[in-house]
Amino acid sequence: MLSRGFSRISGPTASTPKGRARTGLWAAAGVTALGFLVALELTARRYGLPGPLTHQVAELVYRPKSGALLYAGLALTLVVLTWRQRFIAIAVALGIDVVLALTRWVFDIGGVGDNEGRSFGNGALWVVLGCGVIALTRRTGRERVLLLKGVCLGLLLVAGRKTGDTWLLITAKSRPQVLDPYVATADHALGNPSWVAGRIVEATGPVGWHILHAVYGQLAVAAVVVSLYQLRNVAAERRFPAHHLVRTFLVIGLLGPAVYMIYPVVGPVFAYGTGAFGTGSAHWAVAEIWPHVPPSVGSPHSVVYDAITPRNCMPSLHTAWATAIFIHSRKAPRFMRVAGTFWLLATLAATLGFGYHYGIDLVAGVVFTLTIETALRALDHGWDRWAVQQVAGGVVFFSALLLAVRFLPVRMAHHPWTVGPLILLTTAAVIYGYVRTTARWEPSPAPPAPRPEPQLEPA
């Protein structure tokens, strides 16, 4: 039924050299992503953990961890289909979900590895995979490439979540010592913002806590909404835009955890509090003082922490992703621009107020995103002098910030009125450089057509 509903859309199959180059780039990216997933699966197995591929295959039958994420992946795949095909795909996905839910209820089958999970979402994964089969067996030329691109987007969104979860587990298993005392000491240069924000959130009571928690937990939903707006014309134009939010999101998720391995940090609520998410405790904390008493400036050193809590602070990827959402919502309608701004500000407040990050983490996250965004845009517009300078400057500042926090935290803490403004001004310079660089790539507005002069009627 699904394949019959997907009527073949005729179109030219010949491609230009630029189109062939883009197709080759997509193929290379797909092979690289698959190799990365296999390597991550093998690494997770070394620590006795199931990898991202195992989790993904299990979600074909077992209750998935996040059904909403699977349907978000399906939504990205549907951007290449017509409205009739979309309705058929959604109906098939819902039907599969009903059948599997009844089967699990009858045979008492739980979630992936435990009894938790959502009762829906499997159907979305089945339909995305079915679209891939249809692309390989019933499509040719440009239509096959377009449908495969849609399938890859959907699968990469889901696989990105699984990859991130596996990365976090690996950081906890492979990095027994954390560098929180260094970051907490250096954060004196910014006025210990996590301690300040933690007391503010605590003062707002349950209302403020629930609002920020909802924003923090539904970041992927906001990203999908902005992405669907950017990709709304794919089905009509039969091509993807040169750059969109999904690309930035995936690159951030790919590169960020690599920094976690180099710079393991758990966060204030874990290192100086009682923990969160069921991990961490006062037993592992350096001192149980967050958010009421800022840490003293001493001689920082690495400390041993548990093998469960992820080392996912430096840089703050939540801040990085929220910054990407803000950037890509600037050309959307007014409502989405306001929502993108709110999501960024609320995410910054949540990351600090819940004690998940230090202030330095947020600065690093912003610079991290702007550098990646500039590089991705330069791939489409060309590497001019401005782009090279912006990317090089972002890399240098990001690296210098990490090195300073690691080797000069005490000096940073003792000179807050010098180091703090210097960090903020340099961050502002990176932001200004990004705006200036990308503004040069925007198409110039067409000059208004000359208005005809009024002709006088003859007397």
Which range best describes the helical content: under 10%, 10-25%, 25-40%, 40-55%, 55-70% or over 70%? 55-70%
Q: Name the structural class.
A: mainly alpha
Low-confidence regions: 1-14
The biggest sheet, with number of strands, parallel, antiparallel or mixed sense and barrel status, is: 2 strands, antiparallel
Tell me the total number of β-strands: 2
Calculate Rg over CA atoms: 25 Å
Give the overall form: globular
Treating each run of at least 4 consecutive H or I residues as one helix, how many helices? 19
Q: How are helices and strands ordered from N to C?
A: HHHHHHHEHHHHHHEHHHHHH
Quote the average pLDDT.
85
Question: Could you give the distance between the termini?
Answer: 74 Å
For the largest beta sheet, what order do the strands appear in spatially?
A: 1-2
In percent terms, what proportion of residues is strand? under 5%
Oligomer: single chain
Q: What report would you give on this structure?
A:
It is globular, with a radius of gyration of 25 Å. 42% of the residues are buried. Helices cover 67% and strands 1% of the residues. α6 (122-138) packs across α7, α16 (359-381) packs antiparallel against α17 (385-407) and α16 packs parallel to α19 (416-439). It has a two-stranded antiparallel sheet with strand order 1-2. The longest helix is centred in the middle third of the chain and has 34 residues, at 141-174. The protein contains 19 helices and two strands. It is an all-alpha fold and 459 residues long. Mean pLDDT is 85; it is low at 1-14.
